[in-house]
Specification:
mainly alpha, 68 residues, 2 helices, elongated
């Protein structure tokens, strides 16, 4: 499960990097609005999701260990 969290974080980081490249050519109020409205919320949500995935991974590991 932790691999999924790592992958999600990596994909999101790559999206952010691509967005930064896009911003080099798209510099207006709409690009700022898009970033604030969609990307900032996405980054916050992904960070929270990765944290939950890590917690679930620890819980699953503990459950497996307890059942052995």
């Amino acid at each position: 499960m932790s691999g999924n969290g790592t992958r999600l974080a990596a994909i999101t980081k790559e999206l952010w990097i691509q967005w930064q490249h896009t911003r080099e050519d798209w510099k207006d109020a709409k690009s700022l609005e898009f970033e604030r409205k969609y990307l900032e919320d996405l980054l916050t949500s992904v960070d929270a999701a990765v944290t939950v995935i890590e917690q679930l991974d620890k819980l699953v590991t503990k459950i497996r260990h307890d059942c052995e």
